[in-house]
Amino acid sequence: MTRAEMRRAAQAANRRSARRKADGKAGGKAEGSSGRPVASARRQPPGKRRLIDYPRTGRRGLRRWVPSWKQTLGLFVALCGTLAGAVACAYASVSIPSVNPSTQTQANVFYWSDGSQMAEVGQVDRQNVSLSQVPRAVQWDFLAAENASFYTDPGVDPQGILRALYHMAQGGQVQSGSTITQQFVKNTYLNQSQTLSRKFEEIMISLKIGRRLSKQQILQGYLNTSYYGRGAYGIEAASEAYYHVPVQKLTVSQGAFLAATVNEPSVLMNADDPQERAPAVARWKYVLGRMAAIGKLSAAEKEHYLRAGFPVPRPMRAQGSMGGQVGYLVQIAEQYVEQHSSLSDQELNQGGYQIYTTFDKRKVAELSASVANMRKRRLDPAHRAADRNVQVGAASVDPTTGAIVALYGGEGWNKGHYTDNANSAGVPVGSTFKPFDLAAALDHGAVLSPGRPPSPITPESKFDGDDDIEIKNQQGQYLPDGSDPTGLLHQRNDVSTKWGYITLRKAMEQSVNTPYVQLGEYVGYHNVENEALKAGLLRSSLQYDTAGFYIGTSTPSPIRMADAYGTFADHGVHHEPYSVTKVLHAGRPLSGFRPPAGTRAMPASTADTVTDVLQGVVEHGTGTNALALGRPAAGKTGTTDDYKSAWFIGYTPQLSTAVAMFKEAPGSSGLRSMAGVGGYSKVFGADMPTQVWVGYMTAALQGRPVLPFPAAPHLGKGVNESGAPSPSPSASPTPSPSPTPTPSASTASPSATPCGGLIGDCASPSTAPSPSPSQTPTGPVGGLFGGGNGGHDGQETAPGAPMRPHS
Fold first, then answer.
1. In the chain, which stretches have pLDDT less than 50?
2. Which of 186, 219, 406, 586 is the most buried (most CB within 10 A)?
3. How far apart are CA 252 and CA 142, in angstroms?
4. pLDDT single digits (tens) 666-682
């Protein structure tokens, strides 16, 4: 052994000896079972103890990095605690935001008289309903499809959330995993973005909402805010969009389909198309299956619905269409609602109102068809210049109630005609005003001589029917000519026939003017005015000008004229015209929409006598074209100077209808002559207006019983029934100031004078004070249905000259 090797061996022995001594000091010598000493376990050098022994000491390799079970459990508990704390902090810090205004935006829905939907007006197709309006079984359609544990869960579904997170982790889209409460929160308070932060906020708010709102409130909000396709927001709009019925009439089967649309509205909205129906049928079956699975349908009920087949949705219809007559109908109904409730225009436009009208869908179509048929048969604007710009306005009223059942306002908003001709003043009524003269004479008599009491008048009383006669007032003075103060008024007829003294009945039948102008002066302006007001006309439409007032310078709307003639039809009882029967908001009815009660406007004997005279107009007078109706009818024709307007107003016991025809160029203010229109050199109310009336009334009354009018009552003997008048003449024939109101200088066309309100004058016709004879009423338009602010007086000559309405 070399000296180097010996040195290394000695050093190794010294090291072994030192280790043995150290082991002996630490714990003594270890011995094995055989009594021989064994090596002590390796120990790490002593050092500072760690709070968390990780990586683990005393372990080599991979084992150093594998946590012990204690460490694993501790880590899990720590994570859970941290997560719970974070959730608690988030729950405490998150507040329920304000409701998204867009979820409150609704449409107003208008309904026909049969309850079917007429129109929807608003930016959003939504009408919120109360949960009580949704059938219970339909509610469970949605719960079964979306959240069967709705009534027991806290508002969130942990399994659904984990499932959504799993799909997101797999690279798919962020899914909802949402309960109905969460969907309600998303629709009502949040945006529709699919992000984790928005999802987390949705969960927190859902937990809070579940403590603030009842389950019924949440479900109601969910049904009203969900999107169902076809532009429909909310279950009421969806019910109308897919099945054209209100939500109350939904069946379980239909509800199952609507519940399916919430998940995939863009896919299922066209389920009415056979080629796109398969996904809808599959989803519908799934919902019915879920209903059965949770015990809300029996197996037999499920099989019944499956055998009945898929409830195919109705074809999509245009929402909110205001074409044709619908725009005019909606406008009238809106005006009526505002006048008969506390709603302002702004409040009504916020939407959410269900407005049920008196308009009969079939009758509206029949009236439009009759106008179209007349135009097709008589008018040819492409080849005859006279036929251009001819307009028609018409209205039909139930005389026993005042309900407006149909109207024709023009060609439609979709054709650029926005003025409602049925509800606008401005077209003089001509001789159709004469029945009010006769009714006033029957009620008040006539002062034929100065200082004498009124004499009784009957339809057989005779007056001078010749052309170009002078007219006296009650003081026995001749009326001056308004255009020539130095001359006398010479009232004219349409023709120069020498009628002599004829009965008022004959004068009505042949539409002779002079007897009725003289009758009106003898009866008195105020008596005639009040008779017209009580019958239903508005003071704002009465023209306070010359003696032409008695033969039709006034300009009521067709609605008002149909209603006033309805007073005759209902034996003297006037029913204020109305267009709305019921208004609902959030399922609750608004007050103020009971049908107006009838009021006695004139004795039944007066009304029935006028009806008897107007029957004669139809049977053997100027209105014989109306005989084509084939049932008892009463009516009157009317035409004004230069044929600027032509009317026919007629009624049966069941229906009163007024038709007006006039001509007005676009952008102009004033009526134009209709001479030459339809190939007629002279256009009378007996012609085209009567054709429209007959066509409509024939269709509207089809299937209705033929009812007779009551027999004319016996009135006794009236004055002048046997010949010329006997009263002594006035002491002086010189002109004197007339008590007839001064001429009105106002002129207006129908398009310039739309109705300024709804039904009703500024004051009740029966109580409002009459203006003095020297005054011409001024001020704003008063009332609805033709309360225009004046109208064209129909005269070719200077204001104040006698008007000569024809028939």
1. 29-34, 37-42, 172-176, 724, 726-783, 787-807
2. 406
3. 10
4. 767 789 999 999 999 99
Written as six digits, the tokens of 436 are 């009010």
**Which phi and psi (to 5°) does residue 369 adopt?**
-65, -35
The DSSP H or E segment spanning 242 is helix 235-243
Place of tokens 């001589």: 449
How far CA 534 is from CA of 440, 548, 564, 572, 614, in Å, comes to 11, 20, 9, 10, 19
Residue 251 contacts residue 311 (beta carbons within 8 Å): yes
Query: Is the pTM for the entire model greater than 0.85?
Result: no
Q: Which two tokens stand for residue 609?
A: 């006598």
Three-state helix/strand/coil letters over 272-338 = CCHHHCHHHHHHHHHHHHHHHHCCCCCHHHHHHHHHHCCCCCCCCCCCCCCCCCHHHHHHHHHHHHH
Determine contact, residues 804/513, Cβ cutoff 8 Å.
yes
**Is there a contact between 329 and 360 (Cβ–Cβ < 8 Å)?**
no
| 3-class SS string, 176-241 | CCCCHHHHHHHHHHCCCCCCHHHHHHHHHHHHHHHHHCCHHHHHHHHHHHCECCCCEECHHHHHHH
Map out the domains of the chain with their CATH numbers.
123-308 (1.10.3810.10), 423-582+597-752 (3.40.710.10)
Give the closest residue to 560 by CA, choosing from 383, 723, 367, 427: 427
Contact 37, 31 (CB under 8 A): yes
Q: State both tokens at 761.
A: 């004058």
The answer to whether 351 and 105 are in contact (CB under 8 A) is: yes
Q: At what angle do helices 252-261 and 278-293 cross, to 10 degrees?
A: 110
Structure tokens at 513: 């003017």
Distance CA 439, CA 572 (A): 10
**pLDDT value at residue 753:** 41
Q: What would you report as the CA-atom Rg of the chain, rounded to the nearest whole angstrom? A: 44
DSSP SS3 for 53: coil
SS (H, E, C) 733-761: CCCCCCCCCCCCCCCCCHHHCECCCCCCC
* Bridge partners, residue 233, by sequence: 126, 227
Distance between CA atoms of residues 162 and 242, nearest Å: 35
- Show Cβ contacts of residue 792 under 8 Å, excluding neighbours closer than 6 positions: 426, 427, 428, 555, 644, 670, 671, 747, 748, 749
By the 8 A CB rule, do 175 and 168 touch?
yes
Residue 614 in contact with residue 652, Cβ under 8 Å? no
Element counts in the chain: helices (H) and strands (E)? 22, 20
